[in-house]
């Protein structure tokens, strides 16, 4: 039996899912890595005519996905994606899961063996409420978007938007679009986004082998 992964739904899941769906071309081949109960890819299949596959290691959530009629694969992403054939998907989704993976950079690099683009949603641990709790209370923060006590949290990595940009510079991929999620909406351009956003959606593409503009593009994203 696969180890249990704590499913951490996004408190703004409806907003996040709508954002992801708008970034996916109708009829695409889509894989959702850490799909939970498969509700997002079920929408992509039913409303967007996508060919979908969900990957989830938690047995209960895996069964719920199967019962909803979604094709599912039960697998532990910490073990890699070797079971999946190369370039078999147009889009890979990784929503509120990356921070739970033991080696997130390895997984991101591997995603671009199986997919052309990736849509990644991560919490922003540099949000002002998080910073304020650490400053004033001197303890691990608990907020509406990070609702777990430190000893119950599924998160094994704690990152900010700045951290993710730096991670992209280490990988085989580049950030095409960064969308800070502030309140109930995504903002294309936001002042002090790393303070204000509780999470962020990243659209990623694989770097070409001769991509000499990587650092320049990343910096343009930061300043946009």
UniProtKB/TrEMBL annotation:
<dbReference type="InterPro" id="IPR010743">
    <property type="entry name" value="Methionine_synth_MetW"/>
</dbReference>
<protein>
    <recommendedName>
        <fullName>Methionine biosynthesis protein MetW</fullName>
    </recommendedName>
</protein>
<dbReference type="InterPro" id="IPR029063">
    <property type="entry name" value="SAM-dependent_MTases_sf"/>
</dbReference>
<dbReference type="Pfam" id="PF07021">
    <property type="entry name" value="MetW"/>
</dbReference>
